[in-house]
Amino acid sequence: MFKNYLRTFWKIASQNRLFTFLSLFGISLTIMFVMILSMTVNKVVKGSGPEKNLKHILTTGRLKVRTQEKGGNEVFSQIERYVGEDYLKKIKSAEHISMFYSYTWEFLRNGIQYTTGFMVTDAEFWEVFDFEFVQGKPYTNDDLRTQTNLAVITEGLKEMFFGDVDTVLGKTIRFHDYLLTVWGVVKDVPPTSQNLLSGLFFPYALFPAEKPNPRSFSPYSGPYTIAFKANSRKEFSAIRRDVQSVIQRIDAADPKLALVLAGPNTQMENLLAVHDPEDQEGPSAKSRKYLLWGTIFLLLPIVNLMALNFARIRERGEEIAIRKSFGASSATLRSQFIFENILLTLIGGLLGVLLSFLVVALLGNTLSIPVKAGTTVPMSFSFDFLVFGIALGVCLLFGLLSGVLPAIRMARMKPVKYLKGGEI
Amino acid sequence: MIKLENIRKTYRTQSVETLALDNINLEVGPGEFVSVMGPSGCGKSTLLNIIGLLDEPDQGLLQLEGNLITGYPDKKTARLRNRMVGFIFQSFHLIKELNVYDNVELPLIYRKMPAGERKKRVIEALEQVSLSNRMHHYPSQLSGGQCQRTAIARALAGKPAIILADEPTGNLDSTVGKEVMNILTDLNKSGTTIVMVTHDELLAKATHRIIRLFDGRLVG
Ligand SMILES: Nc1ncnc2c1ncn2[C@@H]1O[C@H](COP(=O)(O)OP(=O)(O)OP(=O)(O)O)[C@@H](O)[C@H]1O
Ligand SMILES: [Mg+2]
Fold it and tell me: Left (φ > 0), alpha (ψ -120 to 50) or beta: where does A113 sit?
């Protein structure tokens, strides 16, 4: 039976080229899009550069601080240095905790204006993220006790500053008013490493700790993101609980201000919430919104294919009537049509996968997907079973959703209607 | 073999109600070759469809090979159609996407029959209608007579006890029509019961018995 379905599928599909083409076209384009999107998201979420173990890292989201009374002021930002040092870094449930922030850095070099990012970090940063050192080593807390003007740079920045020289350890780099000593060189950070996109890393210990400005609206708001590295994802909930209870403690001690901290989040949660950081919705509301849009996006080709299939019912009426006359039951016909449709979508999916590779290979550098304000990701291959599984799942969903209703309708048809005698 | 008692069938459309068959009582014995005649619209096709379980009567009893047909569950009627009857239509009704071989194999597909056995039966059926040399042709590449012979091969491939032919020669010129008639006569001689609708008095005379329908009733 199965073999026969397959043969029938092939014959019907190859003799109705327009239908087959239109169906495959719709499916493969959609799957191509799904593939490219999931390849990119997969890279960002799983980490492709120094953040190899992103799976086990949670990072804090936005901190909202507002006055207690209704209709008062509120401010969204990250976390101030002392809140990190005195409270959040003391949490016991995480294996390593690091705090850092990043900005863009524009500098002139030989008359050319360059733009890169710089990151201001603690020593634990190098324990949380697995950077690959080409030269030197990370700065440790011991190092920082004797000297704070240390820097780790990327290979790209090394090229820019020093050209094609062997070792640059001990050489200095000027960052605004500071002269930093190169302590290590790391591999370039791929653009998918959205949180770590930077050319220069140096310790925040370089700047003296300041008392929070009493005149500022919120003494808790600052630039720092805190990253918590767990041994396993099982510890995530404990970390989240501890972080939130710390924030609640600060909140309770302050009669004037109320604090709400988003997260700490996984990379997927961060990714889903990044587009509109001022948004008050948490990542879960955001993900629901994306899910909704994704569903609508996928529903379109499904409805399309379903319409094509419905239109074909009439066309295949005679075939169905003939099959029924010679002993096909409605159930048999139903499974035949569903089978045909799923096979068609799978072929379309396969074409879509190949197309996505082709597109990425040809246009990878031109096409890019924005992952964060100001950051785009040029596409490149990152084929893994997750991505493939997503494409396969979407395909099967397609085949089922677009096939079942028309198949039921088709199989239910009364044969006499299509078996009128008369001229052909 | 075939027994109809008080069979009645009406078709309803939004405005009109047509009494297609009115109180039909009919018995066809095993090995009989019966032709059904009557003016257009008198209910000949309806009669055949009801015998072949393609349509349900509103009223009355139908027996096929001693089985009383009650209720029309989809799976069961499909099975009975597959085992007991072979249809031949005026406009052939071959599946255009399939070649001659695949079309003839159709009734065997819906049985659990090993592929080797199916192949043997298909070739046998094609030999019976002298079409083994056209196995890989598609319906569009065949003449009307060849199409009808393919359809006959399909009807007999499953070795059904009953063949229901609705104007099998209606779309063919008279010489080709005679060829088709000869095949049916041979088939009947080897024991198959045949009910054939025709407008051709000459062909009808060559059968054992003529049944005449007028406005949904048996006459004569
Ligand atoms: N599906 C249907 N819906 C409504 N009326 C129908 C339907 N099928 C048949 N009829 C009507 O039932 C009557 C009998 O039709 P049937 O097809 O059995 O006639 P016939 O004797 O085979 O005619 P012909 O010689 O033209 O093939 C006709 O009046 C026809 O209009
Ligand atoms: Mg008729």
Answer: beta
